[in-house]
């Protein structure tokens, strides 16, 4: 039994006595205890791939920030690695794929991963974390949306334009779909296994949704997210967060996802009109947390007013930035908890 089920009830679209709150990337560099642990290891991947340590980091923000949900500490790029495309996490630079997808032969060499065989360390971390939480708060599992995963697999690293990935959509759309189909099959099996391992809510991150024009987004991203949501329907509530894809709200509204995440440039009232009875999540500008305590409180209250009229999970409009003062994060969390607007 959950001691605090506010987040889970909101994720189901049920009434709650107050707005639940958590933050994307809450488990990580904003916390000194995370930096201390990370400093003893060889790198980011060792932390992700060691279930006991990933569990410890997952629970740190529950202890330090008193948030209403925990999200498993992992990375969306474990999926391409499980499929056979290894990545590195380069300090101060981000992810790097030494080999990238360039041809049909490259796609053919990829496997549809078995989550138990190739991603067992994430499933173990979920099991350990669910037991250690002992019902304090719900546990969120996640994966990247297929297009965002394709973008990294083709580009090889982060990019402002992902022009190589986008070129593939124009020049070889059939090959892009073949790759997306493999990623989708892997992602469905992975998320289903996360539920079996203890995840009580799932989130799909489409981090690079906003780089696509609407027609391409429908063809190369939304259709695959819809397939994932359909495969998970009835298991646990699913959240879709597609940064920058404001035009896709009607498509998300038609999917069997329960919650739609908003970035900080979206108008909650407009989204509510387009999304019907969906729960909305978000959407404070992460940079608002750089302000004074009074500014953070005022910005949080202004955000909460915008979500009046339907179920809401308070969060940022993207992940919390690593140089954010944890005290300001706590002001954000406390302000949400005190809100009775």
From TrEMBL:
Please list the reactions this protein catalyses: uroporphyrinogen III + 4 H(+) = coproporphyrinogen III + 4 CO2
What EC numbers are recorded for this enzyme?
A: 4.1.1.37
Key word Cytoplasm present in the record?
yes
Which pathway does the database say it acts in?
Answer: Porphyrin-containing compound metabolism; protoporphyrin-IX biosynthesis; coproporphyrinogen-III from 5-aminolevulinate: step 4/4
Main EC class of this protein? lyase
Q: Please, which domain of life does this record's source organism belong to?
A: Bacteria
> In this protein, which residues make up the domain named Uroporphyrinogen decarboxylase (URO-D)?
20-29, 140-156
Q: List, alphabetically, the CDD domains matched.
A: URO-D
Q: Where is this site: Transition state stabilizer?
A: 75
* PANTHER family documented for this protein: METHYLTETRAHYDROFOLATE:HOMOCYSTEINE METHYLTRANSFERASE RELATED, UROPORPHYRINOGEN DECARBOXYLASE
What family name appears in the similarity comment? Belongs to the uroporphyrinogen decarboxylase family.
Assembly notes? Homodimer.
* HAMAP family, alphabetized: URO_D
Q: Tell me the function of this protein.
A: Catalyzes the decarboxylation of four acetate groups of uroporphyrinogen-III to yield coproporphyrinogen-III.
What's the name of the protein? Uroporphyrinogen decarboxylase
What organism is listed for this UniProt entry?
Hymenobacter saemangeumensis
């Amino acid at each position: 039994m959950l001691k605090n089920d506010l987040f889970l009830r909101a994720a189901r679209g049920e009434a709650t006595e107050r707005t639940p709150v958590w933050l994307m990337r809450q488990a990580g560099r904003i916390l000194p205890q995370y930096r201390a642990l990370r400093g003893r290891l060889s790198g980011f991947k060792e932390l992700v791939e060691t279930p006991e340590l990933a569990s410890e980091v997952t629970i740190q923000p529950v202890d330090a920030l008193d948030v209403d949900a925990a999200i498993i500490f992992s990375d969306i790029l474990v999926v391409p690695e499980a499929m056979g495309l290894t990545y590195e996490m380069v300090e101060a630079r981000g992810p790097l794929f030494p080999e990238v997808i360039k041809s049909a032969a490259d796609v053919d060499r990829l496997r549809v991963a078995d989550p138990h065989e190739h991603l067992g360390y994430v499933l173990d971390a979920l099991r350990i974390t669910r037991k250690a939480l002992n019902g304090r708060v719900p546990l969120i599992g996640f994966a990247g949306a297929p297009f965002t995963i394709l973008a990294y697999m083709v580009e090889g690293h982060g990019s402002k334009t992902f022009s190589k990935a986008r070129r593939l959509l124009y020049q070889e759309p059939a090959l892009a779909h073949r790759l997306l189909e493999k990623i989708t099959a892997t992602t469905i099996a992975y998320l289903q296994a996360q539920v079996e391992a203890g995840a009580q809510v799932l989130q799909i991150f489409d981090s690079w949704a906003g780089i696509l024009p609407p027609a391409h987004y429908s063809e190369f991203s939304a259709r695959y997210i819809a397939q994932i949501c359909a495969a998970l329907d009835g298991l646990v509530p699913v959240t879709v967060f597609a940064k920058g894809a404001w035009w896709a709200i009607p498509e998300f509204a038609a999917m069997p996802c329960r919650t739609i995440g908003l970035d900080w440039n979206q108008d909650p009232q407009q989204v509510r009109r387009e999304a019907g009875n969906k729960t909305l999540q978000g959407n404070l500008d992460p940079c608002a947390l750089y302000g004074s305590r009074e500014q953070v409180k005022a910005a949080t209250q202004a955000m909460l007013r915008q979500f009046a009229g339907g179920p809401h999970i308070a969060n940022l409009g993207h992940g919390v930035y690593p140089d954010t003062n944890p005290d300001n994060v706590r002001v954000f969390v406390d302000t949400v908890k005190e809100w009775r607007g």
